[in-house]
Design a protein that fits this description.
The protein is α/β, with parallel strands linked by helices. Helix content is about 35%, strand content about 25%. The strands form 2 sheets. The chain has an 8-stranded parallel beta barrel. This is Sugar phosphate isomerase/epimerase.
Amino acid sequence: MKKIFITLNSFLAEEVLEKGQEHFLPQITHAGAQGAEIRRELFTGDSFSLQELRTQLEEYHLTSVYSAPVEIFNESGSLNKEAAALTIMEAITIGASIVKFSLGHYNMQTSSVMELKVWLASLKIENLDLQITIENDQTEHGGSLKKIHHFLKESKTQQVPVKMTFDIGNWAFTGEDVLSAAKVLSEYVVYLHFKYVDQRNDRLVTLPLPKDDASEWRNLIRYFSTDIPRAIEFPLTDGDEALNYTSLLAEA
């Protein structure tokens, strides 16, 4: 059975910030999804309880992914260790199966994948049931197909335990061809983000997936294993819409 996740940023941000991410877990369960993607940027201040959130995720029998707006490599091309370590610890606390970063300012000549391997080993990542991933984001430096492929290829060669979250919509923001990216990167992908991005009034906007059979996203999924978790990351207006799109992704 295909595992469907719903990202918490699919709901209205103001409402999530006001009510807390845990408020939406029953709605995610009701939609028939098996997982929730918790978003670091949707916590308010320092008052949130990760342990309490974990308890509620378990109560609703939801697997979790933890996403944070943190780059693995900083502007100098070196490892962003402090912020990344904090994010990993937070992911462990909520019991996440996957933690999602952006690649950041990876330099193909000077950034050290081996240093990343040694650092992750110092955190004893291999003893944890947690998969670290990098996602193609909407920035020029973090959404470069060439850099992402280079990093993942080097990581595979050096046996670094990092895989990929593939966001099908974000390639539009960086001007990359999504089909080319799917062909090149599919072997590294362990988690898929689904959204539809279109040009509206001279700007790119994120919209729900088209439901017609000829939609590009349906062609894309053939490049990926059917057991890879699929996440909804587009605006959901109510529970019925969440239910409908969960079914759509599960049946595709």
